[in-house]
Amino acid sequence: MTILVVDDEEPIQELLKFNLENEGYNVLIAFDGPAALKIVEEKRPDLIVLDVMLPGMDGLEVCNQLRQNPKLRDLPVIMLTAKGEEIDKVLGLELGADDYLTKPFSPRELLARIRARLRRIRPQVQDNEIIRGDLRIDLNRFQVSVRGEEVELTPKEFELLRVLAAHPGKVYSRDELLERVWGYEYAGDTRTVDVHVRHLRQKVEKDSSNPEYIETLRGIGYRLKG
After folding, report:
1. pLDDT of residue 28
2. What is the pLDDT of residues 158-178, one digit of tens each?
3. φ and ψ at 88, to 5 degrees?
4. Dihedral, CA atoms, 41, 44, 48, 51, nearest 10 degrees?
5. Going by C-beta distance under 8 Å and a sequence separation of 6 or more, which residues neighbour residue 82?
6. What is the pLDDT, as a whole number, of residue 142?
7. Residue 184: CA atoms inside 13 Å, Cβ hemisphere, count?
8. pLDDT at 223 over 70
9. Whole-angstrom Cα distance, residue 109 to residue 6?
10. Termini Cα distance of the chain
11. Would you say 49 and 110 are in contact if contact means Cβ atoms under 8 Å apart?
């Protein structure tokens, strides 16, 4: 999963990047608010660690803009600040922050809070099975069933569905799906993704023209409805 760290202090960035990468996360870095918002739009991280005291646009305004965007309002935000006043914490939470940590903080505590927050946005998983409503994906048997009926998928269709279902609500661009499902060295183009999504919908949706699960965001990509 990908974490965006937004902080204008390079030592804090390096500390967080080191600890997060040691835990297996991908880490993106931004020094200010506008850069953070641009990265969120382009990369769609799974969670943001956001400092309040940023130059120009502060973290509170960044959080407010995220919550005003229907596509981004559910993105988890953990705020960091050197301030300890209760009013700042209350204001951050009222603007939509999911959690709040005051500097100086323990990296271990931050990692624990990140893990707890990410667990809440993951789909229900039982015995290596992803369950999204009537959709069940058996990761051990490579089987998919919808409304109790098993559907036959090709290996690439299965992997495409698995990637989308692992992070419901997360939007994947066609290029991202090419990388994750077909690999970096794949020589095809993004129309390959569109074709596989169309075939996948024909197999798992009641009405492929009005999809219940796989949603198209025009000009952006695809996501499994969360």
Report:
1. 93
2. 999 988 888 887 888 888 888
3. -70, -40
4. -20
5. 53, 102, 103
6. 85
7. 0
8. yes
9. 18
10. 17
11. yes
**The two three-digit tokens of residue 114, written as one number:** 């990140």
- Residue 224 in contact with residue 215, Cβ under 8 Å? yes
Q: Select from 221, 206, 100, 113 the least CA-distant residue to 167.
A: 221
Q: pTM here? A: 0.55
The encoded tokens of residue 226 equal 């969360």
At residue 3, the pLDDT reads 92
Distance of CA 88 to the CA centre of its chain: 27
Average pLDDT over residues 210-215: 88
Q: How far apart are CA 207 and CA 175, in angstroms?
A: 26
Q: Which of 74, 76, 75, 78 is nearest to 99 (CA)?
A: 78
The answer to whether 150 and 144 are in contact (CB under 8 A) is yes
- Edge to edge, the sheet with strand 149-151 lists 124-125, 129-132, 135-138, 143-146, 149-151
Q: What is the pLDDT of residue 49?
A: 94
The number of angstroms, rounded, from the C-alpha of 76 to the middle of its chain's C-alpha atoms is: 9
By DSSP bridging, strand 47-51 and strand 77-81 are parallel
Quote the tokens at residue 191.
């129309």
Sign of CA dihedral 24, 28, 29, 32: negative
Write down the pLDDT at residue 70. 78
- Answer whether 96's CB lies under 8 Å from 67's CB: yes
